[in-house]
Amino acid sequence: MSTGLTKTWDAWAGAVPRLARSSTLEPCDDIAATATRLAQAALADQYMVYEAAAGVWHFAAGSAESLTAHAAGITARAAGRTWTAPTDGRPLTMFADALSALSAAPSAHDSERHFYGWAAFELAHLLHADPATTGDGPLLHALIPSVEVTLTGDRTVIRAVDEAWLHKVCDLLAEPTTRHPPAAGTAPEVSERIITAGTDTYGRAVSRTVEDIRAGLLEKAVVSRKVPLPAAPSVDFPATYLTGRRANTPARSYLLELGGYRAAGFSPETVLEVGEDGRVSTQPLAGTRAHGTDPTENERLRAELLSDPKEVHEHAVSVRLAWDEMAAVCRPGSVTVEEFMAVRPRGSVQHLASRVTGRLRPDAGPWDAFASIFPAITATGVSKRSALQALARHEEGPRGLYGGAVFRGSTGGALDAALVLRTLIGAGDETWLRAGAGVTAQSSPEREIEETCEKLRSVAPHLRFTAALSEVVGHGRPLDSGGTSWNPTMPKGQK
């Protein structure tokens, strides 16, 4: 990194206030509800709820201190000031360099700082495929919070930049829980109409991808479809998150309004997990069957999943590539498959799951691992470059947050990144769902359509709106199966 850029990031890091005040409270009775209530309080312009491993939840909020990277430039903000720099086509490297400056800024208050953010799927084109298809939208965004709350079964810990923020959150947590009228739910028949919208168009995309695979252009591609939701009534993101979390069994969950995106998600897997000790792991999930309320049927589908040649092959090639990507940044001989083809229930579906682990090389850090592994192979395909090229041909428009990552990291070297799947997403006036399926030479459009429907059932039935959705759907505003949905309140640009 040049001396000029070092001074730029040092100046920015020095202007970012530390979380100098802290308080420890008794544990709350309902962590999910408490985290959601913090989000609903509108404490700042940006926030994130992030459910990590082992029952630990984090809430972070702020507005003044952030970092945003595009393909061509990066912008840092703190204390009312703005710093900018060109990326020279390396936005992830510049992003990592800026964040590393936070750990170098001296402080008597705390030795470690945390950041919360997301990476858009289009970063993948810059890392692994054709930079020309990256687009000009933001690729990475991080918030360095003014207040952070960690919720566990043992205690609630609040850290804030000053006493005003600390008291604001303590007072909010001390308030008795207010029972608000529940947001309008989604009737089962309406939920199914949401889920099945646009399947004909998607089936044709699957067929074209199969043709590419049989022509030898690639081995696998995860082709997805977007399901727009109505502009009115609007979706209640916090209510959807809390309702959906009650019904799902995610590896990670998150609720955010950050860097231009709104999201409520129940991620089935992590892109990567990096500990401060250098241990790194990734958790590829590939191969899917439905998972419902009937234990006998679930077991039958589990056995079918474990014996289906297409699903087993799809999973095996994903694990193979995950191994290769880990080996590129890990110590020789340290990469191992700790778990292979277990079956994990994730809400309305069950997946074949494996875990690949290793130890980072001394010259590699968490963002080097992120650059090697992102985006998750289970959201792209094999080879990754060829799959990205196929997705650019066969999917309509950019993915944005879908298939990217939501993350929490520390200046001590930890990074926990959840794969953005099973997620309600909003940006500007648009709100949508998206789901995909792994397409191989053995795929049929009918089965891959069915798989996307199974995955959408992890979110669609739990959507909560500001008014009854039946007032919009079913009275002159039909959903059809050809790709045109929510007419005439369709988001701009959707066809």
Poorly predicted residue ranges = 474-495
Specify the number of helices.
13
What is the helix fraction of residues, given as a range? 25-40%
Q: Biggest sheet, open or closed, and with what strands and sense?
A: 12 strands, antiparallel
Structural class: alpha+beta
Cα distance, first to last residue? 45 Å
Shape: globular
Share of residues in strands: 25-35%
Rg, please? 22 Å
Give the overall average pLDDT. 90
- The beta-strand count equals 23
Which structural traits does this protein have?
495 residues, alpha+beta, 12-stranded antiparallel beta sheet, 11-stranded antiparallel beta sheet
Give the helices and strands, then pairings:
Layout (H helix, E strand, L loop, with lengths): L2 H13 L5 E5 L5 H10 L5 E6 L5 E6 L3 E4 L3 E6 L2 E6 L4 H14 L9 E6 L3 H6 L11 E4 L3 E5 L4 E5 L2 H12 L13 H9 L2 H16 L5 E9 L8 H11 L4 E7 L2 E7 L2 E5 L4 E4 L2 E6 L4 H13 L1 H19 L8 E11 L2 E11 L6 H8 L7 E2 L1 H11 L10 E6 L4 E5 L3 E5 L2 E10 L5 H12 L39
Antiparallel strand pairs: 1-10, 2-3, 2-12, 3-9, 4-5, 4-8, 5-6, 7-8, 7-20, 9-10, 11-19, 11-23, 12-13, 13-22, 14-15, 14-21, 15-18, 16-18, 17-18, 20-21, 22-23
Helix pairs in contact: 1-3, 2-8, 7-13
